[in-house]
Automatic annotation (TrEMBL):
Keyword Transit peptide: yes
Tree of life domain: Eukaryota
Protein name: ferroxidase
Class of this enzyme: oxidoreductase
InterPro entries per the UniProt record, alphabetical: Frataxin (IPR017789), Frataxin/CyaY (IPR002908), Frataxin/CyaY_sf (IPR036524), Frataxin_CS (IPR020895)
């Protein structure tokens, strides 16, 4: 049963000429429109979060970062990067300092995302996913390989060819 609000009844003794009306519409037609289509990455660009178990991610990422730590330390025997060159690896974070003007590289594992993140003073930040078909860490936006990028950038710093091999490709 409908009843008038008290404020309207209070004006009942006055000569009210207009009572506002409210029109309600059902919004069902909105639901009948097709859903919006959003851009999708090609199917080959999938996230590693669905293909690696947490244990496998830990194993692959730790193996990769330990290899890179050792490889960077070995570079100091082959090249003179200056007194500021330093390599440190702890708690899943690898920091390689070349000093000015080359800067500092930081690689760390991101367990919730199952990614290795790279912060490069030359190419900027990148997030690498593990690709089981190539057994390598791939930057999904460009399909670039982590080891190839590091080889290219460190070769430019060393002014000589430096090759980081993928330790996961070995039997």
């Amino acid at each position: 049963m409908f009843s008038f609000p008290r404020w309207l009844i209070a004006f009942g003794s006055q000569n009210v000429k207009h009572i506002p009306t409210v029109t309600a519409r059902i919004l069902c037609p909105i639901l009948t429109h097709p859903r919006a289509s959003f851009a999708k990455l090609p199917t080959v660009h999938t996230s590693s979060t669905s293909c690696l178990s947490p244990i496998e991610f830990e194993r692959q990422s730790q193996h990769t970062l330990e290899y890179l730590s050792s490889a960077f330390e070995d570079l100091s025997d082959q090249f003179d990067f200056g007194s500021e060159f330093d390599v440190s690896y702890a708690d899943g974070v690898l920091t390689v300092t070349f000093g000015p003007p080359h800067g500092t590289y930081v690689l760390n594992k991101q367990t919730p995302n199952k990614q290795i993140w790279l912060s490069s003073p030359k190419s900027g930040p990148k997030r690498y996913d593990f690709d089981p078909s190539t057994r390598s860490w791939i930057y999904l936006h460009t399909r670039g390989d982590l080891f190839e990028l590091l080889s290219e950038e460190v070769s430019a710093i060393a002014k000589s060819s430096v090759m980081f091999r993928n330790p996961l490709m070995e039997p």
